[in-house]
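Could you join me in thinking about how sequence relates to backbone shape in a protein? Label the sequence line and the structure token line clearly, so we can match residues to local backbone shapes. Once you have written the record down, we can walk along the chain together.
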Amino acid sequence: MQNAHIERCNGSIRRELLNAYVFKTLSEVRQKAEEWMEDYNHHRPHQALNFRTPVELLEELTNH
């Protein structure tokens, strides 16, 4: 099961980041990757997390 989650994440990164842009510099890759991670972890609800963001779930788990 753990491998399936990693493969899903890898697929999302490939589709939504690596295949979506033509990068010219390594700094551009880093900038876009940071923007993608911010969106993925803080703003995008995930079905597997009951439509919460990973940060919302983490906050919920650490407050108990």
The mean pLDDT is 92. Residues 2-62 form one domain. The chain is about 70% helix and 0% strand. The chain has one domain: 2-62.
